[in-house]
Structures are given as C-alpha cells and as structure tokens.
Amino acid sequence: MVKMKDVAELAGVSSAAVSRYLNGGYISADKAERIKQAIELTGYVRSSQARALRTGSTKLIGVIVPKINSESVSRITAGIGQVLGRRGYQMLLANTDNAPDRELEYLDLFQNHPVDGIVLVATMITDEHRRAIESCRVPIVLIGQNVEGAACVYHDDYEAAFELGQALAGRVDGKIAYIGVTEEDRAAGYDRRRGFEAGLRAAGNPLDAALIRLGSFTLDSGYGAARELLSVDPDVSFIACATDTMAAGALRAIDEVRGTGEGIHRVSGFGDNAFLRALTGGIPTVHYGYLTSGVEATNMLLNTLDGVEGESGLKTLKLGHQLMNV
Amino acid sequence: MVKMKDVAELAGVSSAAVSRYLNGGYISADKAERIKQAIELTGYVRSSQARALRTGSTKLIGVIVPKINSESVSRITAGIGQVLGRRGYQMLLANTDNAPDRELEYLDLFQNHPVDGIVLVATMITDEHRRAIESCRVPIVLIGQNVEGAACVYHDDYEAAFELGQALAGRVDGKIAYIGVTEEDRAAGYDRRRGFEAGLRAAGNPLDAALIRLGSFTLDSGYGAARELLSVDPDVSFIACATDTMAAGALRAIDEVRGTGEGIHRVSGFGDNAFLRALTGGIPTVHYGYLTSGVEATNMLLNTLDGVEGESGLKTLKLGHQLMNV
DNA sequence: TATCATTGTGTAAGCGATTTCAACGACAGG
DNA sequence: CCTGTCGTTGAAATCGCTTACACAATGATA
Predict the structure, then answer these.
(1) Lower CB count within 10 Å: N or C terminus of chain A?
(2) Average of pLDDT values for B27-37?
(3) pTM for the full model?
C-alpha cells in the first residue's frame, strides 16, 4: 500500500506538503504539479482510517430503518443515498426489523462508533428514544415523525387522513371499517386514525368504533384483520387501512369473501404503492414524496456537518401530500 | 472522550493490559475485574478508528446493490444485514441505481477505502467487472450471477425457467409471448429467456420469436411492452415475463385491453412478489430464497474473513427454487 | 539445585494521516 | 541596513489503539 510518505519522497517534498496539496493549504505551483504527478504515478489514495483517527470525521452517515423491504423505506433510502453519494459521504445502514429496542442499540453503536451524523427513519418514539436523541453526540435527523426538540422531516398524516376521510365519506354506501397500526407509531398509528375519523365525522359519516382493528404493517396482518371484520359485520363495504400494504391484504380478503366483481373502490391506504396502483387500477390512497423526504433530511444533516453558509442548520420540515384516486 | 489510557490509570494497570482484556489476551483475574469496573465506571468505548488504523480491519462490509427499492434486493439486503449484525460487522450500502459503471466506481471506492469485504448483488458482468473483481484486494462474493472464477451465490435461472416453460406449455391455449430484460444480465436476461424457450420447445409448443420484447425491470416497461404485444398480435393470450414487477405491468395492460374477466392465468413472472400474490391470487412464478442468498453469501464472506475453521472459504453455491401456481 | 515452560505485565514502536510551529527567502517600507 | 509581512516549507507531535519484545514470577521437571 503506497502511503503519503512515498508520494512525498517521489515528489521530493515533505509529507506535510502532500497533505496540504490534498486539503488545499499553502503550496507553490511547481510542487503542486510534482505532487500531482507523483500521485498519479503511484496510484496513491489516502487512508480514510488514518484520516479519521486524526480528524475525528469519518464521512459516514448512519441510517437506521425499521425494515428494509418496504416500498416507502426503500424510496426514502434511495433519496438519502443520492445525496450522500453526491456530497462525498457513505451510508452505514442499520435495519432494526421493526424492533424499537434495536433502534436504541444502533443509536448507541453509531454514536460511539464511526459516524458523523444519523438519519433515523422513525416509527415509535418512546421516552427512551427521546433521551437517546437528546444526548446524541452527533447531529441527527428524524424522518416520518414530528418530535418536539428534534430535527424532523415528516408528512402531515393527520391532515392527509382527514382529507381522505372527508373525501371518502360521501362516496361509500354501507359501513366503513378501519385497520390501523399501533398508536405508539404516532404518525402512522395515531395521527392517521384520528385524522381519518375526524374527516369522516366532518362529512357526517362517523366511524363505528367497533369496526376498528389493528394490523402490524404487513400484508398478512391486513388480510387477517379484514377477514375478521367481514365475518363480524357483513354490512362492511369499505375498509380503510393505515398502509397500502395492509390494504392489499384487505383486498385479498374481500375478494375471497365477496368475489372480485363488486365495485372497484373497496379499500383505501396510504403510500401510493406502485403494485397496488397497477393491479387494482388505483385505490384511494395518499401519495407522499418519500424520496424527497430522504433527500431533504440528508441535505439538512450534511449542511450542518459541512457548515454550509446561509443554511440555518437542523430544523423541522413538513412536506406536502397528495390524495390519489378519490 | 475517555480513552484507553484513562481506563488503565483508573484500574492501575498499563493500557496494554486493558487492550489485552478487551481482546482476550493474557490477563490475571483480579486485574480483569478492576479493568471491567473501570470501564463501566467511565463508560469507555474503544475508538474503532484507532483500532482500524492499527489493525487494518474496519469490521465494515461494502454491499453494492443495483436498486434498493425492489422486493428481491431488499430481501437479499435483509439477509445480509441479519448475518452482519449477528457477527459484529456493519453494512456500508452503495446503491448504483442500475448503472453498471457506478458499480465499478464503488468497487474501487470500497477497495481503497474502509471495507473488509464486499458483497455485490450483480446484474451485468462485463469484462471490466471481471477485471475489477479479479484485482480486488478484499474478498468479494457475488449474488445473483454465476461468474467463472469468482465466489457466487446464485439461483439456476435456466433450469427454473425451463421448468416454468414446460409446465405452462400445455396449460395455455393461444399464443405465448415473452417480455425479457437485457441479455447483458446473464441470469435474468439470457438464462431465463433461453430456459423458458427450451422448456416450451421441449413440451412441443415453441415460442414465436416475433413475440419477444425487452423491458427494463420496471413495472412501466412491462406495461408498455405488453401493450405493444397485444396490439401487434391479438391472438396473444399469455405473457411470460422475466420479473414479477414487469408481469404486474403486463397484467395491467391486459386488463385495459381485454378487461378483467378472462381467466386468471394470463401472465407469469419470476420472484414471487407478495403484492402480486395477494392481489391476483397468484400468477405462475418462481420462488427464490432471496433472504437465504443474502445469508449464505455473507456467512461465506465472514467465514473467510474471520478464518473460521472447517469452512472451505469462498466457493460457489447454487440455491434451489420452487415453481409457484402452476 | 539448575533449567525451562508457562503465565502475566509494562514499555515502546508503530499504523498513516493532519496540523502546529518555527523558520526561511524575498521583498517592501522606513 | 533593519524590520515586518507574506507565502512556503519541513520537522515533529499528535490521534487512540494493538502488539512485539523483554522481563518477572511461578511452578514443574530433570
């Protein structure tokens, strides 16, 4: 492995000069030229380990996601990766498999270990999370939840759900049911359900509390909850879900119980999943700019890390949404 | 930041002793106890940067994927992450967005930079790739392609496609069409098409070369190709696709042109996508253990890195497959 | 008793960069 | 001619850890 000293010797300068050349310090034109050639000749690349030890910065960003195989998360990650790549950082990915305690574990690991900043694609934010975020030694940005006192990039789930509920209320005859997710997930659990209920109520068609079930983000859980709903109350004619994935499961359940024919609009979701759009002709759902949220969050983080002028640093950012197929 | 020297002083030993304690060298029981307490007291964690500089190992594995938002890739990544986490490594994720030259770029970046090994989820393997893999200074495992001279974990796409073709040949009346992907992707492009053709031929129902189209892995490309096929030849009654995602697009095209009613089995794919399974009742497709391939590849890689006894190191591994819904 | 493993310990030499510091030549102003 | 400034430069000190080495004990063996 060729190191800086070798380059320096070949160029007839000190290694300090090479370092300055690389990092833009004082260096005369002719030495710069000789160093440049020596580097090309030797194929030298500087050891990021040594650099990291000396400077304390690794150019690594830790990204914590709840689950990698979901369309929303992969799109967020794609956005994060885009920005990181463009700005000379790399992504250390940690997948918690929907276990909130592993989130804490990784927050810990990342702090003591080698990242310059953290992006947390958040689901449940407990007090312990809050404390961990608070005491984090590197800057951190949350995606998907709006947490007081932390930098967040999020969507207004309450408002979106409200609009969806309002829009659907008039359009559905028969009873509407709802499959949500745990309210510990404030955005996807609490806000979406509350917003949806409020929207229905505002349109004069309130949600029957007996027709609410809880899923776990998975297609199968949506299927199971829907089967149960349909068997409990045969008048249920529409099932709103907290995610498109669960809506897909619900749709399958409806198909099985009722047959395929009966109208197109029988479920709604959140996320505007591409498969669902193609295969059903489009259920009512909410489109979020997932990629954008990854991009925005990462730009914000790197701006504070790189000390970009004119950027006010970490702040909270609410992104827009769009109702689809209503 | 508390460092090893601080711990050593507090425990009344040398920092070498602390290092030995941490890495399992000679250490007496009572000093071990004192060191343990000192570490707990100070909350010391060792700097992975310094360790990396000294030992040359970063405990980081570079993972190069063509596209993060696809079900197959996310499942592979999930498998990789599982093993890495369990064995004390972390994942440096690089997303090439389907640009093969960015793959090369990352191979380069990773070698010179801080990874101990590389997992490449491969699509197209050009000669340049082969050279890059050959000259790679860290061990590397490929997933998804079988490349001579490199360690690979892959599925037998030819055989799977053959079986699928054979099984479908008898079951379809009317013409069968095929939407493939670029043959530069040997596994998903070349092998699947050739295997499928061979399977049809073996069953006495050969594929009409005029009914072959090329997609680009996306749902929309499947849709477009299918629209074209249907308009070119109205007798086409079944469209086999190289991926489930394209099959979803084809299905939408068929629905639009022909209406929904006409029989269930109208397309086939590869990958056993969960949405497709739920929303269509299951098209003929091939199930691959994507998660398993991530797990196997990573175990192989880490076994050679950690010098696990009884493991013959990097080798090539062919995983099984399963025909679904035929 | 002499000899030799065996186990435990500290000292010190790196790993490969960055960065402080003192110094130097040239050149302008007084 | 002296002094101050400016642009450049290299020597050397870190950054925090691992590990080769030398050296003690200690107990076992001859």
Answers:
(1) N
(2) 93
(3) 0.91
